[in-house]
Amino acid sequence: MEIVGLGTDIVEVERIAEFAQKKGALERVFSTEEIAYCLARKNPYQHLAVRFAAKEAVYKALPFGGVAFKNIQITNLENGRPEISVADERCRGLSILITLSHTEKYATAVAVVQR
């Protein structure tokens, strides 16, 4: 497979915690499933932050622009491995690899797009 894009992002968890307090902010960026998953966690803002970083990393890695963050969804497989899906026809034939990491203060993600 040919690599057609690489993206990375780092986010301060506190910045996402502040963002989450704004009415309707989470719903503009995250899917209902993502919000439910994160809010059910012990440290929800770390999980929201790492998903925000993942969306930004994928956005940067895609070989085209104009994808809404809400159309980039992060889920977890049964083994905990993150998985990306993008609701955009232009992603047909692309494979997206993602890795996520977070600490108390920071969340980071790296995305690789292959064709």
Distance between the termini: 6 Å
- Order of adjacent strands in the largest pleated sheet: 1-5-4
What CATH architecture do you see? Alpha-Beta Complex
Count of DSSP E strands? 5
Description:
There is one protein chain. By secondary structure, this protein is α+β, with helices and mostly antiparallel strands. The protein has one domain: Ribosomal Protein L22, Chain A (Alpha-Beta Complex). The chain has 4 helices and 5 strands; from the N terminus they run βααααββββ. It is globular.
Quick overview:
This protein is α+β, with helices and mostly antiparallel strands and 115 residues long. The chain has helices spanning 13-20, 25-29, 32-39, 44-61; strands at 3-12, 72-76, 82-86, 95-102, 106-114.
Question: Topology, pairings included?
Answer:
Elements: E1 3-12, H1 13-20, H2 25-29, H3 32-39, H4 44-61, E2 72-76, E3 82-86, E4 95-102, E5 106-114
List keywords for this structure.
Ribosomal Protein L22, Chain A, 115 residues, globular, three-stranded antiparallel sheet, 34% helix, single chain, 5 strands, two-stranded antiparallel sheet, alpha+beta, 4 helices
